[in-house]
What does this fold into?
Amino acid sequence: MKILTAEQLSEADKRTIERQNITSEELMERAATLVFNEIHNRLNGAPIPIKVFCGIGNNGGDGLVIARHLIQHGYHVTIYVVNYSDKRSDDFLANYEKLKSITNDWPQLIKGEDNFPEINTGDFVIDAMFGIGLNRPIEGWVAKLVGLINDSKAFTLAIDMPSGLFSDKVPGNDAAVIEADFTLSFQAPKLVFFLPETMDYVGDLQILDIGLDREFLAEIKAPIHLIEKVEAASLYKPRKTNSHKGDYGHVLIVGGSYGKIGSVLLTATAALKTGSGLCSLYIPECGYNIVQTGLPEAMVLTDKDSEQLTTYPEDFEADVVCFGMGAGTSQKTVGALEDLLNSVKEPVVIDADGLNILSNNKKLLDLLPKDSVLTPHPGELKRLIGEWQDDFDKLEKAKDFSKKYDVVLVIKGAHSFTIKGDEIYVNNSGNPGMATAGSGDVLSGVITSLLGQSYEPLSAAILGVYLHGRSGDFAASELGYESVLAGDIAQNIGKAVKDLFQSEMKDSERN
Ligand SMILES: NC(=O)C1=CN([C@@H]2O[C@H](COP(=O)(O)OP(=O)(O)OC[C@H]3O[C@@H](n4cnc5c(N)ncnc54)[C@H](OP(=O)(O)O)[C@@H]3O)[C@@H](O)[C@H]2O)[C@H](O)CC1
Ligand SMILES: [K+]
It folds into this structure.
């Protein structure tokens, strides 16, 4: 799914009105009615106090439409017009008139702190103050109102965007932004919903298809994509009936050191669980018995050093090589990576200490084969590309790095970002249970395995990240977040692959 900017969405809005020959008021009615349906499906008539805070633009207009439907369905609704400006949008005014015709409880005008209502923990707050039209920080008494809503701890549903959140920049320190529990957003996700610095304002997210012009949406050039099941499934290559292990790649996992042999074991397990035909490991001698016992399906070669890697077996023929997990950063191991990069011509996967070695020895970056995949967490990324000012700056620097060294970057996080040149792919699978030791080692194994199975490096990274997250979802649903171990993620990769082609059942379809 394309992630769009506020400008692109406003343009899509205009084109839809032209091409579908409808008024903007009709489009607002359509969009806001979908929101009402979602609320009604969940509240099911519950008599809880609903407080709708409307701005004076079209986000506020949406709020008025939602409120009208709620009132007509018997809900207990109080509407507030947050008068941050004396202007009114046309569609706001039209819906204000419609509201007056169905209720005698007219909206209450908030012009300053004196008009603030009481907001209780048990209230249901609908935030329709600002949407994609926000163009400067919220200030003064309106900022105080945002604080009051946040402090109330009432369940807060944001319409389109949490008010105060820009679609294209990070709010400043101490900025007033609604901390929503749930955001129902129109047509396309916005990048800020997924960035570490801004995602917490959004709460749970649902995108509503409000029927904007399909042709225009298909034509829009958007370099940022959200990766969900459909996108991941489109990358998947089915196995052929008439095939053998030689068709699915031979991966070589290079890593480990004394006390950190478990890491390579996890990576190798994940590679085999993702379907590699053959898996070999190159590790220090101390790991030999551990790996042979822990993973009998794998083959093991050992370095002459018993505790760390010092060389690379350059005559070894593998389809893809992965380097770094548990390897340490000793000078001898730097030499091992240098040997590897001097002998391998196909894209490699570099993770963990492999990345730290690259950061400490920047000249090695020039030896990386084109389209190699680097999988840093934010700390490793900082060492690679330097400090950034905010998440937008981080993405710019990451794109520059990807272009400079011709590599695919996977920035790991709650939503991992895969970057190649100017293209960004935001992953939407996974859960907090995956924040656990060894989770990254498993991811490297999945990506390496896909590369060995002839996936293009970018596709291997995007699909690998998605499958890793989905495996974590299966592990968490069985075990609970706290009990997910990295090994559990590896064990569930098969389920994640099968799930690519299982359609979601809607609640209404369940018996
Ligand atoms: N295509 C769609 O997705 C649809 C979206 N809809 C809804 O429309 C809003 C966007 O509505 P818009 O009227 O453009 O903007 P807002 O309602 O977000 O903001 C209203 C005006 O507020 C002013 N503004 C901006 N920032 C501030 C601030 N910090 N303090 C005070 N005032 C501010 C600004 O006007 P100015 O002239 O003062 O600059 C805004 O214009 C979208 O989010 C959806 O909810 C449609 O309903 C359906 C289609
Ligand atoms: K809002």
Observations:
- Confidence is low (pLDDT under 50) at residues 507-511.
- Residues 457-479 form the longest helix (23 residues).
